[in-house]
Design a protein that fits this description.
Elements lengths: L1 E6 L3 H5 L3 H8 L3 E5 L17 E5 L9 E5 L5 E4 L12 E5 L4 E6 L10 H19 L4 E6 L23 H12 L3 E2 H5 L8 E2 L11 E2 L2 E5 L7 E6 L11 E5 L8
Parallel strand pairs: 1-2, 7-8
Antiparallel strand pairs: 1-14, 2-4, 3-4, 5-6, 6-7, 8-12, 9-12, 10-11, 13-14
């Protein structure tokens, strides 16, 4: 079973930059999208029959937004974490299946000069509590743009970015807390090479020079470790400042293995 996460930085924009061709070629079971920035009802999906779509829009038009496109009808769908202070930006969609939960997340950016870092820290704690709550009943697969490079290996210039958004000690500790709770960074279960990035600035020809950051993740419950087959960052796929990350797993996780 193939699951793909991708921060598209504007769903309508990426529709004209290769998303349909990519999805039709890959035929994923799940496509988790972040930063959709659009009313999904205004986007044409007739080119993709056989899939269901579940969206969480931000209250602010043209901002944030998440969604899951899937072949598999869920038992239940929820948007947000059930917390008013965190649920108006369209950042979380959760699908429940008999054997697991699939969670799409777009973590808030700490912003320039870490102006939003206090909110970001509150978000990280709330999100960790949310997925831990889910895991009490069944395993969880979390994916999306988590807006943090966890280790120095996860960005091209760690020393220059030490106190910048996405690589502050506080944000890195927030991700460490997720791993400390038992969740696995699925990509690093398979690949510990440097220079494996999923986001590049539009400035200074960063993508062509692979001056990037790994901030897009699949994080999975430890019970699912043996069900993971591969996790690959698709640096070859264009259309956004992020690239997709593909996870392949035993399909039996949906029903419980």
């Amino acid at each position: 079973m193939k699951l793909i996460t991708w921060n598209v930085n504007g769903l309508r924009s990426v529709m004209g930059k290769g998303l349909p061709a990519f999805v039709l070629a890959e035929q994923p079971d799940f496509l988790l999208l972040q930063e959709t920035k659009v009313d999904p009802n205004t986007v044409e999906w007739d080119w993709l029959p056989g899939y269901q779509r579940y969206w969480n829009r931000a209250a602010k038009p043209g901002y944030s937004g998440t969604g899951i496109v899937t072949r598999h009808e869920p038992l239940a769908v929820s948007c947000g974490m059930g917390l008013a202070e965190h649920d108006n930006e369209g950042r979380v969609v959760t699908l429940e299946y008999p054997g697991c939960y699939v969670v799409c997340v777009y973590t808030p950016n700490a912003q320039a000069e870490l102006a939003r870092l206090p909110y970001r820290m509150a978000w990280d704690a709330a999100f960790l509590a949310y997925v831990q709550g889910l895991e009490q009943s069944k395993p969880v697969l979390v994916a999306g743009d988590l807006n943090v490079a966890h280790r120095e290996i996860d960005l091209a210039h760690p020393k220059a970015n030490r106190f910048n958004p996405g690589f502050s000690e506080e944000e890195r500790a927030g991700f460490s807390n997720l791993l400390g709770a038992g969740f696995q960074d699925a990509f690093r279960e398979f690949d510990d090479r440097p220079a494996q990035y999923s986001w590049w600035s539009y400035r200074a020809n960063a993508r062509a020079n692979n001056v990037g950051w790994r901030i897009d993740y699949w994080c999975t419950s430890p019970k699912l470790r043996d069900a993971l087959t591969s996790c690959v960052i698709r640096q070859d796929v264009l259309g956004s400042d992020h690239c997709p990350v593909t996870l392949e797993v035993d399909a039996r996780i949906l029903s419980g293995i």
